[in-house]
Design brief:
With about 280 residues, this protein is an alpha+beta fold. It is about 30% helix and about 25% strand. The strands form 2 sheets. Strands 7, 8, 9, 10, 11, 12, 13, 14 and 15 form a 9-stranded mixed beta sheet that branches. The protein has a 6-stranded antiparallel beta sheet with strand order 2-1-6-5-3-4. The radius of gyration is 19 Å and the shape is globular. The protein binds N-(5'-phosphopyridoxyl)-D-alanine. N-(5'-phosphopyridoxyl)-D-alanine binds next to helix 6 and strand 13.
């Protein structure tokens, strides 16, 4: 079955789908994106993703290309046409097509919209979660506006590749104060030996993850102790458990940091429980 993408008003076969070479997303990374999980053919936590999308667009002064309700219809239609039961849907909005010039183009330039969806192997994801992943640390080298979900991801690409080159799955950024900010495509968490789940505040240095925000509510409901504060790589290496969160991985246990096993080197009990319980607290649309 050929994959279908939505590109600026049209549903196209992926091999025929294209955008103008003067799209500002292509020339300046001038755009934003969202990734939503798909489960049983439905979009997970869409209202929160749409709220973050609107915020990212607002921060960059890019106009909403269509009403939110229409955007949701397009995203669901791309999921349906690609027959994705379990996977992800990707939405990208750029400032549009204009002759190359750094300053914003005239208001008449319409934002570019691309939506794709793809199936993931649930069995493979569960197998990865059962084993847990390795993480390395890298120096923070991104711009300070990581709260905006921008398509400008070169430092993230390099960090992820550094992880791969060292046989790991994710890289955690460490800021100038020696504290972990987040992963190259996920939020970072530890569980202390006293059983407290710890993650950095979304007020600085990280993207406010949707999975992160839902998980905080999950922990409240399950009465899991939670502290919102930064932690260092040394504290992580000494922690009982660690995990990362993102729309594509939900709660993914971390079993080593910079080659040092976390806890007994196996996914921890609290991480496993939070992964299992997570979708009881999600919305589906
Ligand atoms: N990444 N931090 C960064 C830098 C991210 O890129 C992501 C998501 C997150 C987690 O956010 P959420 O829980 O809303 O997915 C945190 C997506 C999945 C990606 O780039 O593919």
């Amino acid at each position: 079955m050929s994959r279908i993408a939505y590109v600026n008003g049209h549903y196209r076969n992926l091999r025929d789908a294209c955008v103008n070479i003067e799209d500002r997303g292509y020339q300046f990374s001038d755009g934003v994106y969202e990734v939503c999980e798909i489960r049983d053919g439905r979009l997970v936590d869409m209202p929160r993703h749409m709220a973050r999308l609107q915020r990212s667009l607002g921060e960059l002064r890019i106009a909403m290309p269509m009403p939110l309700s229409a955007l949701s219809v397009v995203m669901r239609e791309v999921v349906r046409r690609n027959r994705v039961g379990y996977g992800i849907v990707y939405l990208q909005i750029t400032r549009g097509v204009a002759r190359r010039d750094h300053a914003f183009p005239p208001d008449a330039v319409r934002p570019g919209v691309v939506v794709t969806a793809r199936s993931l192997s649930r069995a493979r994801n569960e197998a990865t979660a059962a084993r847990g992943i390795a993480v390395i640390t890298v120096p923070e080298n991104r711009w300070p506006r990581v709260d905006i979900k921008s398509v400008s991801l070169l430092p993230n690409v390099l960090a992820k590749q550094a992880a791969r080159d060292r046989g790991a799955y994710e890289a955690w950024y460490v800021d100038g104060d020696g504290l972990v900010t987040e992963g190259s495509s996920s939020n970072a968490w530890i569980v202390t030996r006293q059983g407290s789940v710890v993650t950095r505040s979304a007020r600085s240095g990280i993207l406010s993850g949707i999975t992160r925000s839902v998980l905080i509510e999950v922990m409240e409901a399950l009465q899991v102790r939670f502290e919102e504060r930064p932690f260092s790589p040394a504290e992580a290496r000494d922690a009982a458990e660690a995990f990362v969160t993102s729309a594509s991985q939900i709660v993914m246990p971390v079993v080593s940091v910079d080659g040092q096993p976390i806890g007994d080197g196996m996914p921890g009990e609290i991480s496993r429980r939070l992964r299992q319980e997570f979708h009881r607290f999600s919305t589906f649309s």
